[in-house]
Amino acid sequence: MSNVYYKIYYHIIWGTKNRLDLIDSSINIILNNSIRKKAKELKGELISFNSYIDHCHSLLIIPPKISISNFIGQLKGFSAHEVNKIKGSESIKWQRGFGVLSLSKKGIAFVKNYIQNQQKHHKNNRLIDILEIIPSTELEENQPKGKPLG
Q1: pTM over 0.90
Q2: d(Cα 29, Cα 50) in Å, to the nearest integer?
Q3: Nearest to 25 by CA among 1, 52, 43, 59
Q4: Which domain holds residue 106?
């Protein structure tokens, strides 16, 4: 794809399996590093990443030669592998599926700020529903399909 120009920005959200509170600050660092590394390996770009106790937010550019599902599947798989390698077997597992929104260049600063301030937004219960939706493809206790987190 050497003759393709693209700048497609995606806000992607995914959660821990059964929305368990598995993510602390040390795991967030591992996730950030591993997701950044894998995104670069896949010729994508991680613009921003942050997590809250049971879910992750990322702002990415994904190359058009790879599907969004494949790209995110590889990020989730690699990041879980890295966390479990460092923290111990099965320290983290991801739910199936994810939420994704595309945005224009004008929306980058707003979404980046939202991602970087996850702890503050959740602490103050100042969430933006559309930026928190993670549809589920599995029956999970306490989380109906498509319901926003929070």
Answers
A1: no
A2: 9
A3: 52
A4: 9-131
Q: What is the pLDDT of residues 26-59, one digit of tens each?
A: 999 999 999 999 999 999 999 999 999 999 999 9
Sign of the C-alpha dihedral, residues 119, 135, 93, 42?
negative
Paired tokens of 16 = 């821990």
Is residue 113, in this structure, part of any structural domain at all? Answer: yes
Domain-embedded: residue 18: yes
CATH classification of the domain holding 61:
3.30.70.1290
Can you give the three-state secondary structure of 15-84, one letter per residue? EEHHHCCCCCHHHHHHHHHHHHHHHHHCCCEEEEEEEECCEEEEEEECCCCCCHHHHHHHHHHHHHHHHH
Strands of the sheet containing 9-15, edge to edge, are 45-52, 55-61, 9-15, 99-103
Tell me the two tokens of residue 7: 């700048």
Nearest to 14 by CA among 71, 84, 83, 72: 72
